[in-house]
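Record 1 of the preview.
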Amino acid sequence: MESHGSLENHTSAWGLANSITIQMTLRAAVELNVFNIIAKSGPGAHLTSKEIVSQIPNPNPTLAGENLERMLKLLSVHSLLSTSVRPNSIDKTKQETSYGLTKEALCLVPNEDGVSFAPVVVLGSEMLVAKSFYMLKYKVLEPESSPFLKAHGESFYDYMSNKPELCQLFDKVMEVNSYLYFDHKVFEVYKGFEEVKELMDVGGGDGTAIAKIVSVYPHIQGINFNLPSVVSKAPNLQGVEHVSGDMFEFIPKTQSIMLMLVLHNWDDEHCKKILRNCWEAIPDYGKVIVVEPFVMPELVEETPEMKRILYYDVIMMTLFPGGKERTTVELDILAKSVGFVETKIFPLPRGSHVIEFLKGGSVGLLDK
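->
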C-alpha cells in the first residue's frame, strides 16, 4: 500500500520548525537584562513591559515597550514568564499585563553564588554556533567533515583564540557547567577523593573545579593544568597551583588526574592520546578520575536526562571533529586500550557519572 503524508497533526512539527524564534527571543531578553530587572524588584514581583523598558536605554520608550510586550508574550506561553492583569496606570478602564519570573526562569538570574544559566543561553545562540548547525547535514553527506570547520575555516579552539570576548563567554559557560554538574551530590556519592593526596585537573579551565575539591578535602594538593593562554588568566585560588602545558604533548608527573568535560570534545584517537599521557604521568597505583555529566545510556528513553544528553551529543558532533557523548562501555574500551587495567563507575543524579581508570588495580592511594 502506498504511504502518504498528512498535515493533520502539524502543530508539533510547526513548533519545532520555528524553535529558533523562542531561542532568539530568550537570548534577546537575557541581553536586555529583562529577567534581572524583574528579579531586582523583589520576590514575586510583576512588571509591565513599560516598567521594564523604563530601565533599558532606548530612544523611543513607547515603541520599545510595544515591541518588548510582543517578546514577553511569547516567553510567557513557553512558561518562562508568569502573567497577571491589573488596571492600566493611565486609563483605569483598561487593563494591562504584567510579567513575573517562573520557576523555569529563575536559573537565568544569578543565585547566591553569583551563577546563572544565562551564559549558556547566549553561547548556544551565538552566530558561530548557528552557522555551524547550518552545515550539520554534511556529517551525512561528507561523514568525515566538521560542520564548524566548514562554516568558519578553522577549528573551534583556533577560532576562539582570536576572539577574547568569546573566550570569556566560553569560560563562563564552563564555570556554569562545573557549578551544575560538580556540586555537593558528587561528594555525597563519590568518596574517591578521600584517598587522594595530589590531584591534577587536566584541561581544568581556570581551576574552579579543583579549588572546590580542595575546599572539601584540604589534605589534597591541587594542580590546575591547562594551556598557557588559559593559565595566564587564571585567578589565584587557595590550595591550587597553576601549571601550563599541552595535554597532547606531555602531562607532568602527578599522583592522580581528573578529566572533567574533556573527553567528549575529541575523537577516539585524540582521547587515547590524552589517556596515554595520563597513564604515563601517574604512578602504578595512580588513577584518572573522569567526570562526565553527559554519559550516553545504552538504551534511549524519552526522559529529560536523555534529551539533555542527546542535545549535547549533536552539539559535540557539530562543533568538534569527532566529538561525541560516549557510553560507559566505550569509555572503558578507550581506557583499556592505552593500558588501564580497571574501570570503576559511579552513577550520579541527572545522568552524570564519575568514572575511575586505575593503572594498577584497586590499591589505596593514601597508603602510598
